[in-house]
Amino acid sequence: MIKQLFTWYGFILHMVWALGLYLSPSPMLATPLNYFARLMSYDQYLTATGLIVVSLFCAIGVILDQKKQHEFIALLCVIPQQFVMLVCAFGSVMSIVNSHYADGVFRNQAFILADQFPFIIAAVMYTISILKNFGNNLFWKHT
Amino acid sequence: LEAYLIPIVALLVSVCTIILSVSFGNRKVDINYVQQLRSRIVALQATLKAVRLSELKLKNELDELKQKNLDLLQKIAEHKKGGS
User: How far apart are the CA of A101 and the nearest CA of chain B, in angstroms?
Assistant: First the structure.
């Protein structure tokens, strides 16, 4: 369970984002979500459904991995969520570089870095957790 | 440009993650390796036990032989006394 902590973090985050999107289109202007919404042509329901689909795939992947069954399918199931998290993280990085949020609010870079860093570190840790879980010999190789 | 670049980079990272995971994730081999190690350890423990048992047996035999030797020496000494 602890090993998949970041996977569940992503699952809950995307589910909450999807819930927010079903209630209102305004979360699409949130900086981490903006680039993913742009990929989904700024369609409120399509973005929410996309987030739910990647979260469900991720949950299936984690369950398959816990049962030690179909490892490759489990890996393929957790990858879409990684893609979404990376898009969100890159969106956050771009907002830091451009010194403004996706909704156009200007702030200095340090402020945006402090605000957006959780999304960046989450994407990095999610990738590391996938590699540690599925590519364990990358970190520990027996002789 | 950003709108296209970000998904492409994210996709590339995802593909790299899949490749690395598939290349380095032979967990089944690991399990086999651990099982092999365990069976080797069990076999070595059994050998060690057998060696210790035979060591004890040899010690006992040596003790018996020493005792017999002592008895024989005593008998020889008695014989010599009786002969003289």
Answer: 14
**Partner B contacted by A61 (CB < 8 A):** no
Task: Tell me the ipTM for this assembly.
Answer: 0.85
Look at the block and give the residue holding tokens 């902590």: A5
Residue indicated by tokens 């030797």 = B69
CB contact under 8 A, A82 and B17: yes
A83 vs B2, B14, B20: nearest CB: B14
- CB contact under 8 Å between A130 and B10, yes or no, is no
Of A31, A36, A6, A3, nearest to A18 (Cα)?
A36
pLDDT of residue B52: 96
Determine the Cα–Cα distance for residues B69 and B78; give it in Å rounded to an integer: 14
Confidence (pTM): 0.71
pLDDT digits (tens, 9 = 90+) for A69-119: 788 888 899 999 999 999 999 999 999 999 999 888 899 999 999 999 999
Tokens of B68: 């017999």
SS3 of A20, please?
A: helix
Residues counted in chain A: 143
Bridge partner residues of A106 (DSSP): A100
